[in-house]
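User: quick one, sequence for these tokens?
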């Protein structure tokens, strides 16, 4: 299905942006590698050096060994030069491969924006330094190519509901649907502003469909191995957030039931959108490690997603606590998550927190991460481990973190 047909079929009742011909941004240099170009309509996708085959070193033993790479870690390597960006990201992939990792979760849509030329979302500020302004190449295509070249699987990571800060939202083209809804936010709650940040309201079918259409855009155009979202669901428990949507679409449910159902439909919609395009592409969610907070504060019914078929391929609970945590110690929390899985094929991939070691938040460290990996491997639904984040693992100057990495490397 072409991108145009895809968007028309998916967004029935939700008007797509009518995007203008790309217009060049003024640059002090006559060089072809300009400081930034407003690119609002993507060029035809070319896979370039990417290969459709499985990355040669990726989870051959069935174990995912992953790391998260955030927008804040991509921001320092942004460049108007495709070759410079490629070189920097390749160095990151080499570090991952040399250590024994085989998967990366890379933030490609942090705030209702994109690290790739999209017809649905504007360019991310982290691509060029200016919201809505892109570059003359496709950063996502480059990153996938380099990950695969090093035998690493690439999962595109995005936040479904969080959008830009208001200042950035006001800077992007009015052609984008999120901007249109923002312009109506004083009279409609499809986009809601909380403390200066915009959020998409999942209480509307058209808002959920926009999320799913963005997923299909990625899966249909790029050779990603997975789609990944983290723990940003409802941003508040305040009833005012979605009062209008609840009144219109609540259909007799309580507010709790309404919100939980909206998140369920989002997760199910993303899963179905992926499998419709490429059944081999996997989908996973990384919720908070605290199950009570998930359901009661974020309205994320993680137990349903791991016990019913058709929601997830993997779950990565963020078990960011040490063994001696007073209310959520690592070992029993891990076991509790494993016991929620009854759906066929769903794997538990514990999310671990080297950043807390790097920041000195944990005591008695040196081999904690290695012990966590060893204990995780004992679980019946074990699918691997994931580490937050790249900087903590590969850019730390902490001696204790270096010791942790040395001990951890022996397991990989």
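Assistant:
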């Amino acid at each position: 299905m072409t991108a145009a047909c895809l968007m028309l079929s998916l967004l029935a009742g939700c008007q797509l942006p009518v995007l203008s011909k790309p217009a060049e941004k003024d640059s002090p240099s006559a060089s072809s590698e300009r400081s930034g170009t407003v690119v609002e309509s993507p060029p035809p996708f070319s896979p370039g050096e990417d290969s459709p085959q499985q990355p040669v070193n990726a989870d051959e033993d069935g174990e995912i060994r992953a790391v998260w790479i955030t927008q804040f870690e991509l921001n320092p390597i942004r460049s108007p030069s495709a070759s410079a960006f490629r070189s920097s990201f390749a160095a990151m992939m080499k570090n991952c491969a040399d250590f024994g990792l085989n998967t990366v979760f890379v933030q490609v849509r942090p705030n209702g924006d994109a690290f790739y030329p999209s017809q649905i979302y504007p360019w991310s500020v982290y691509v060029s330094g200016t919201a809505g302004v892109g570059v003359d190449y496709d950063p996502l295509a480059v990153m996938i190519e380099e990950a695969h070249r090093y035998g690493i699987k690439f999962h595109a990571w995005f936040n479904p509901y969080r959008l830009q800060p208001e200042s950035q939202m006001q800077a992007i083209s009015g052609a984008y649907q999120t901007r249109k809804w923002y312009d109506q936010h004083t009279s409609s709650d499809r986009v809601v502003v909380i403390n200066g940040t915009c959020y998409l309201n999942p209480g509307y079918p058209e808002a959920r469909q926009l999320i799913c259409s963005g997923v299909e855009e990625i899966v249909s155009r790029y050779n990603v191995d997975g789609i990944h979202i983290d723990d940003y669901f409802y941003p508040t428990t305040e009833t005012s957030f979605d009062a209008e949507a609840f009144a219109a679409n609540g259909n007799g449910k309580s507010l709790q039931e309404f919100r939980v159902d909206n998140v369920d439909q989002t997760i199910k919609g993303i899963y179905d959108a992926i499998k419709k395009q490429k059944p081999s592409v996997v989908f996973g969610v990384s919720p908070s490690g605290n199950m009570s907070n998930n359901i009661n504060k974020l309205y994320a019914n993680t137990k349903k997603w791991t016990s019913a078929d058709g929601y997830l391929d993997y779950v990565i609970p963020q078990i960011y606590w040490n063994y001696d945590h007073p209310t959520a110690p690592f070992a029993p929390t891990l076991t509790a998550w494993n016991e929620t899985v009854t759906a066929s094929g769903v794997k538990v991939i514990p999310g671990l927190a080297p950043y807390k070691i790097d920041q000195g938040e944990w005591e008695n460290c040196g081999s904690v991460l290695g012990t966590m990996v060893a204990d995780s491997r004992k679980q019946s639904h074990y699918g691997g481990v994931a580490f937050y984040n790249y900087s903590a693992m590969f850019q730390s100057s902490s001696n204790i973190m270096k010791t942790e990495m040395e001990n951890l490397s022996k397991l990989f």
